[in-house]
Amino acid sequence: MKKILVTGAFGLVGSDLVVELGRKYGHDNVVLLAHETKRQVDFPLEKGDVRDKSTLAKIIKKYNVGQIYHLAGLLSVGGEKNPPLAWDININGLRNVLDLAVNHKCRLFWPSSIAVFGPTTPRDKTPQHTVLEPTTMYGVTKLAGELLCQYYFLKYGLDVRSLRYPGLIAYKAPPGDGTTEYSVHIFYGALKNKSYSCFLKKGTVLPMMFITDAVTGTIGLMEADPGKISVRTSYNFSAINFAPEELVLEIKKHMPEFKCSYKPDHRQKIADSWPKSIDDAVARKDWGWRHEYNLPRMTTVMLEKLKEKLSRMKSG
């Protein structure tokens, strides 16, 4: 079979996605691209930068790549710290991958985000087709990327597919400083210190999803019959919606001693520009998307898995 290339393989999504791709298709058939190659992994691993088109082309040719999951990118907070770099990585990197996917006839997945929405977007049950006026550089690059993907489909017939990821909650990759990642940091705070200071205020409801659902949905979209794909910008993609205090209550069911304080910072403004809930009826109709993890189930698994991870790190 032709190989699968995953860029940004050690990121929040990539860390879980490559495991499932390896399980389904065999580890030898999944090639990882990352900035550093010191990690010991049971996959072919190549060092590279998505802005380096010639290196990407050599890797695609070397492994006879037929599918690309292009996950490399700079997220919301990082994009505000360095907008030119966010544009360079998120857009110029995407254009390189789009061009190469056309040249080598690859099926391509690229993640968009709820960051494409903005203050003028309906915030409750945001529809698939709606106002897109993002106010962050990350959101601007995601909106431009969605339009680029659609253009390459219309112009070149490229089979490119995309999902607007909500906030993702995972335990394999370390949490970053993204706007929704309080929902990961809070578990570390609970297990390490029995306390956490949240950088979003109470009542900040945001669309969220457990990583297992995100990976299942991503692969499900890529495996869907092309004739069922009606959206070539990016599908709305949703699972659960909650505010920080709701997550705190779930954690306290397992750890009654856990305490959380609230000290909103600059990320509050970003969160306030995003929807509270997403209508993903088109994805559910087109290719059968269904989520499996609700808030209680996700909380239980996160506490169990992170407890094991922290214990291994301590003993190691």
UniProtKB/TrEMBL annotation:
Which GO MF terms does the UniProt record name?
L-threonine 3-dehydrogenase activity
Query: Domain NAD-dependent epimerase/dehydratase spans what residues?
Result: 4-224
Q: Which Gene3D superfamilies match?
A: NAD(P)-binding Rossmann-like Domain
- State the InterPro entries in the record: Epimerase_deHydtase (IPR001509), NAD(P)-bd_dom_sf (IPR036291), NAD(P)_epim/dehydratase (IPR051225)
Q: Which Pfam families match?
A: Epimerase
Tell me where on the tree of life, at the top rank, the source sits: Bacteria
Q: Report TM segments.
A: none
Q: Which GO terms describe its biological process?
A: L-threonine catabolic process
Family, per the entry?
Belongs to the NAD(P)-dependent epimerase/dehydratase family.
Descriptive protein name: NAD-dependent epimerase/dehydratase
